[in-house]
Amino acid sequence: MKKVYGAYLCTGCGIGDVLDVDGLKDAAADAGIAMTEHACLCGAAGRSFIEKDIADKGVNTIVVCACSPRVMQKEFDFGEQTITVRGNLREHVAWTGGLKEDGSVDDFLQEMGTDYVRMAVTRAQKTELPEPYKLETISKKILVMGGGIAGLTAAKEAAAAGYEVTLVEKDAQLGGKALGWRKMFPTAYPYNELEAPSIQQMIADVQGNSRITVKTGCEVARIGGSPGQFNVTLKAAGVATEWDAPAKVTADQQDLINKGELEDPNKGMQKYTTLNPEGEIYGAVVLATGWTPADVSEYEHLGYGKLTNVVTNAEFEKIAKTGKVPARVAFVQSPGGKDNDKDFPYCNSVTSMVALKQANYVVEDNPVDGTAYVLYQHMRTPGNTELFYKGMQAKDGVFMTKAAVTKVSASGSSLVVDVEDNLLGEDLQLEVDMVVLAAGMVPTTVADPV
Hints:
By secondary structure, this protein is of the alpha/beta class. Helix content is about 25%, strand content about 25%. The protein has three domains: about 5-125, Rossmann fold (3-Layer(aba) Sandwich); about 140-290, FAD/NAD(P)-binding domain (3-Layer(bba) Sandwich); about 295-440, FAD/NAD(P)-binding domain (3-Layer(bba) Sandwich), CATH 3.50.50. It has helices at about 15-20, 20-30, 45-55, 105-125, 150-160, 200-205, 250-260, 315-320, 350-365, 385-395, and strands spanning about 5-10, 35-40, 60-65, 85-90, 140-145, 165-170, 210-215, 220-225, 230-235, 280, 285, 290-295, 310, 330, 370-375, 400, 405-410, 415-420, 430, 435, 440-445. Helix 6 (about 200-205) links the parallel strand 6 (about 165-170) and strand 7. Helix 2 runs parallel beside helix 4 (about 105-125), helix 5 crosses helix 6 and helix 8 packs parallel to helix 9 (about 350-365). The longest helix has 20 residues, at about 105-125.
């Protein structure tokens, strides 16, 4: 672009009152661009003043010395084919001082103003219109990693938008953990009743969609390239290849490897920067590889792994899927006891909703004597799920309280849960048949280098 310069000085907002306007214009001219002044550049008349020069003189590189570039951005936007540089004379100069006691211009303030003018002019002279980097070819294919409910949803939505989709699932069948659900969260108003799982219908929809290619028993070895041209190496699940994603090696570890003092964990693998000539090209990759239940065995006072019938929420869902659940169940959301109010690692709104869903199983399977205690430090039920939460609050047999669970112990064939700092204001001992710990959802990517 052949530059045609125009520099404009606003004298409004106190700028012209405390600074030598002619001196500022001279500074711009000395730097290489003649400057004109206006009393209010951000107003309609001021914008027209600049637009006239654009139309009549072909000005395409504009210097505006006025207010902060953080404000009036629309007023000083003259289109994508122009360069506009803002010099902040208002907030950074004029508003930081004033005239001397004798009414003359402060020399320091004036010097600072001329510096801002020179900087704006120089920046305009050195600035060029940005040219976007464009790939020679851009793939419109989308890869979805993971065939659980998130991956199936992503594949369906991408296909509905007109894209070709490849869905990769390392297991032999689609569905992921949703296959083990007894019920799913409400998806329709009034959001107060659990629903039958829709996972089988989702699987059928994906498998029957001509835009979606499904690859089961398959996983991603590595991803190279960049957006628009991701080079993806696929492999049979569980098989080691030279194109597997390499393990992370620190600078110190590499030094030991070079000295022969440490075995190279990536021996025999292709360098990560090397693109597989047989790799498949995708424009975008959706990561939906799921999660694993967090380890809760470290919380010894809760008895997991030691006491019979202390289970995680994932284990309780399996029990509910295959049969009737016990009549008295305590759902523990936070493991900190009286020490802190932290939840289990990787807990979130999903684990809160799972506790409510599973509490519903208890009273559903045991209509006469079903009792579910939801003991929490934090309950997270955002959006429409708040309606399900309120419905569970009102359900007979379900008791919820903010509480510190200090101990779980055996008492014959039952369990006793010690509860302190609850909303009732008194310590409790709850005798139950089972305790369910709200194990969080650890992303699979925590341990997977892909």
